[in-house]
């Protein structure tokens, strides 16, 4: 029997610490991102999400700890490594007189030397403009684009080189609902069809729930939860709420086993059960509970909330 060799994670972080002067922001961060995963990093304002991402991008030197991204220490990585990593920064402010088509064509040229037969780079500019929904604005000056359209361009700039690993820091801030939905489709497309590994930060918990294979919650300088949205929700908020109506009267019952409870309910009352509703605790309930637990000084057991 052959034993599967576990694949190297695309991101490996151990004991990451970061201080700005006397202010200790990260006090020992540990996590992995595996190939093809979409991982969401959540945490309150000032928790250190951007700091963590900037360390992984090689833009910031950590105070201590071991960090490997695509098998390399980002602080020592060269252009060949950078060509494999996509970064969506806060907002593209330069080149206001250029058009999206010209900018993407120019930036794409940087990646061409790193193209291989198995991984051609960059993406075709017309395909990318269409994919991020900028075809109609392709030849307008960037300075005249609306904020949301500019953000779409930021995303295009981040992925033009067909990255194996993509970092997105609050990518949908300022998006209208349609742009947000289009962006979610794009993330699924990159992950499912292109195999791109993605690490993103967001304050939108519905977005995290929708996109993430795995969620990390950063609070008090550490990762306090690591698991799928479902696993985190089950562990922290525990119960589901079952509501139904019987002979005109309303009932509510909290249970850890909604499926067997509902089965019993039907065994007992059959079709007389009306308006049945099962509500699981949401990721938002979980997130707020976990951050509150942390702030109250209760450290959750990480191994218990893992997938
Ligand atoms: N260059 C810097 N010099 C000093 N302090 C900094 C610097 N950059 C960030 N900080 C501080 O580090 C802490 C973490 O900041 P960071 O931007 O990483 O948090 P965040 O989790 O991304 O926050 P938000 O959700 O508000 O974007 C904050 O208290 C911030 O003020």
From TrEMBL:
Going by the UniProt record, its keywords in alphabetical order are: Antibiotic resistance, ATP-binding, Nucleotide-binding, Transport
Which species is the source of this protein?
Geodermatophilus africanus
Q: Topology versus the membrane, per the UniProt entry?
A: Peripheral membrane protein
Grouped into one coarse class, the protein's main location is membrane
Q: Which InterPro entries match?
A: AAA+_ATPase, ABC_transporter-like_ATP-bd, ABC_transporter_ATP-binding, P-loop_NTPase
GO CC terms of this entry: plasma membrane
- Report the SMART domains cross-referenced here: AAA (SM00382)
Give a GO molecular function annotation for the protein. ATP binding
Q: What is this protein called?
A: ABC-2 type transport system ATP-binding protein
CDD domains from the UniProt entry? ABC_DR_subfamily_A (cd03230)
Q: Which domain of life is it from?
A: Bacteria
Every copy of the ABC transporter domain together lies at 11-245
The taxonomic lineage of its organism, from the top, reads: Bacteria, Bacillati, Actinomycetota, Actinomycetes, Geodermatophilales
Q: Which GO terms describe its biological process?
A: response to antibiotic
**Which subcellular locations apply to this protein?**
Cell membrane
TM helices/strands, residue ranges = none
